[in-house]
Design brief:
Elements lengths: L1 H15 L3 E6 L4 E4 L1 H7 L3 H4 L4 H4 L8 H11 L3 E7 L2 E9 L3 E9 L2 H44 L7 H25 L7 E3 L1 H18 L3 E6 L5 E3 L1 H17 L6 E8 L5 E6 L7 H4 L16 H12 L2 E8 L2 E8 L3
Parallel strand pairs: 7-9
Antiparallel strand pairs: 1-2, 1-5, 3-4, 4-5, 6-8, 9-10, 10-12, 11-12
Catalytic activity: ATP + protein L-histidine = ADP + protein N-phospho-L-histidine
Keywords: ATP-binding, Kinase, Nucleotide-binding, Phosphoprotein, Transferase, Two-component regulatory system
GO molecular function: ATP binding; phosphorelay sensor kinase activity
């Protein structure tokens, strides 16, 4: 009885949303479709329910919808897709379920806007693929050069140039770090989770973070509340925290304070908050934050934040932020259940 009531409530919620929404079972048959989707397809509910989508709506046959649905189901991970059909663009979110796939979509006739968004995404994908493809080849000569520089640094006859060799090795290491970030961003690797507490990760990094802050005449103030253990990838979340706090420190001038806070919200999510006292993020960048190659720093690549968003997604977390002239606050919420 409770299960039936729950299903009715879910159906009502899905039916009331303004976006088109439907569920396909594993045989690609419609088992639910809301009013917005019916209007978009210009067919009656009777014409669609229990019918195979490829037969009832042949315009979707041969498109990217099928492979993306298969990918969502096989990887058990949400997929996004922009599909062009009959002079319309459909922005789709494909969610895997026990029954099959839940698809939520928005229809747009603003061709130019959607085409620009699609082209932008495709350019980013192309750049990412190119970077991943050449990264390994670049690393080989860099390793050789670094090795010879280290040998020269040990030569007593070259002591006067030691500081130059050291600087060159440091720059090579920096270039190598950028390549590593490219590769990490291009990988669609599964996250290996283990039960751990977010506070233990923060405490293990505090000495390192506080040392950097003190060198820059800044301060880190932690305020950690008791939280439940999470099933997360400890190393990945450690990297996310490092990236976030380093960004916060770089955003501030002398005497700035970076606040690190943890708490449990009303939905029982474990939240990590990182707040700085910088000048805030430029409005022109806020909508693109997390996109590769978009950075608030003059010499930044924008990969650090992109990696943070990827890590959050792999660890069942979301990233939200508020920003203004008195600073920026990032809130990372991990689902505990």
């Amino acid at each position: 009885m409770e299960s039936t009531k729950y299903n009715l409530e879910i159906n009502k919620i899905l039916n009331d949303i303004s976006d088109g929404c439907y569920i396909l079972n594993k045989d690609w048959q419609f088992i639910f479709i809301n009013d917005a989707a019916i209007t978009s397809f210009n067919k009656s509910k009777e014409e669609l329910l229990n019918k195979v989508i490829w037969e009832t709506l042949p315009k979707y046959k041969g498109t990217k919808l099928l492979p993306m649905c298969l990918k969502a189901y096989e990887e058990n991970k949400k997929q996004t897709l922009v599909l062009r059909c009959e002079q319309q663009f459909k922005k789709m979110q494909i969610h895997p379920t026990k029954l099959g796939v839940l698809i939520i979509f928005q229809t747009s006739t603003d061709n130019k806007k959607v085409e620009n968004e699609t082209a932008y995404i495709e350019r980013l994908k192309t750049i990412g693929e190119m970077a991943a493809g050449v990264a390994h080849e670049i690393r080989n000569p860099m390793t050789t050069v670094k090795g010879f520089l280290q040998l020269l640094a040990q030569d007593k006859n070259e002591q006067k140039n030691h500081h130059i060799f050291k600087l060159m090795v440091e720059e090579l290491d920096r270039a190598n770090e950028i390549i590593t970030e490219f590769l990490d961003l291009s990988k669609n690797k599964p996250s290996i989770a283990q039960v751990t507490n977010i506070n233990s990760i923060i405490k293990s990094l505090l000495p390192l973070l506080e040392t950097r802050a003190l060198k820059e005449n800044k301060l880190i103030l932690p305020n950690l509340s008791d939280t439940v253990d999470l099933s997360i990838n400890r190393n990945e979340v450690r990297q996310l925290l490092l990236n976030m706090v380093n960004n916060a420190l770089e955003a501030m001038t002398d005497n700035g304070v970076c606040y690190i806070e943890t708490f449990t919200d009303k939905y029982e999510n474990v939240c990590l908050v990182i707040k700085d006292e910088g000048n805030g993020i430029c409005p022109s960048i806020t909508k693109k934050l997390g996109t590769p190659f978009v950075s608030t720093k003059e010499s930044g690549t924008g990969l650090g934040m992109s990696i943070c968003y990827s890590i959050a997604e792999r660890n069942n977390a979301t990233i939200d932020f508020t920003t203004g002239s008195k600073g920026t606050t990032f809130t990372i919420c991990f689902k505990s259940k």
